[in-house]
Amino acid sequence: MLSAMLKTADITQSSFFCVPISCISSFACLKCLGVGGLYRFVWADGSSLYACEALGFPCFPSGPVFFTKTYLNLQLELGSLMTSNRLFSKAFAACGLAIAVICAHSADAASISYPDVSVPSAGVKFTDISEDSATDPTPLYGAPDGFIVGLDFDPSGFAAFSAGGGGDITDGQLNFNVETLPEVGLTSITVKENGLTVLTGTGTAATNVSAVAYIEVSITALDGIDLGAPINLPAEIVSYSADLLTDPGGSAWDLDATVGLTGHGGLVTKVEVVINNNLTAISEAASSAFIEKKEFQIVIIPENDRNEVPEPASIALLGLALCGAGLAGRRR
């Protein structure tokens, strides 16, 4: 976890603030609360990232957004909603510090690979399973176990905590492939996760926590034949947030997102999956914020070449229903 405190710095509209951030492979932005001014990071390739002066952390006007590219230089550019150069300085000093600390921490977070996991009941095999983090030592997800319709993880230390002002971001990336047995295809992949939050003290809605999940799937084989060029499906992004005013004390949260895999001219027999998870906690002077991931599962629904669910998976659907009940919490 990293903590980034607001700092005042002499940054003007004409300033350039260049940070070597090639070490960042993914980064999730916070949701803008619509309070105060909004400013914009502009990269050399024209990509933008926004920051809210009230938070001093990256955000985006329309909600959470992930950046999966790497960038070498960062230029600070004043956005159209600037209200105060002093606040502008504070916001971007904090954002710059956050990025610098992410880079420093990412050097310590090594990628971890796990053994392949076969799930005969669903007719699939998970291969090339690995996790990495831009902010924390790994493991965060932990080693997976197969269950009747997918993979089950028991996260450890996948949390964000902040007290007395500032914020904390925990980032975790999970990569894996899914291959099917002969005459079996994939119809969907679902990510399910849950956890708890604790918001205490005195403050405003600026004391908050959030969770974001980004799922990217590429189809690499149809009917058992590798494709020359993968079919890259639209990314699925889901998020949860809670604040001190609406959710004081402790509460449960959950997220789930499904990527459909049908309608591509054949049975989907191999896919590559990238999942980015971010937990964020932001506090004020007299408050604290905590969010933790407790459970994480990958659920698949298979089919055979007659467009029927394979017999072993008919039992799995019951397990899926029970799994959903077990992971059920409160979604926002």
From TrEMBL:
Biological classification of the source: Bacteria, Pseudomonadati, Planctomycetota, Planctomycetia, Pirellulales
Domain Ice-binding protein C-terminal as annotated: residue spans: 309-332
Pfam family, one: PEP-CTERM
Domain of life assignment: Bacteria
InterPro entries referenced in this protein's UniProt entry, alphabetically: Ice-binding_C
Protein name, entry field: PEP-CTERM motif protein
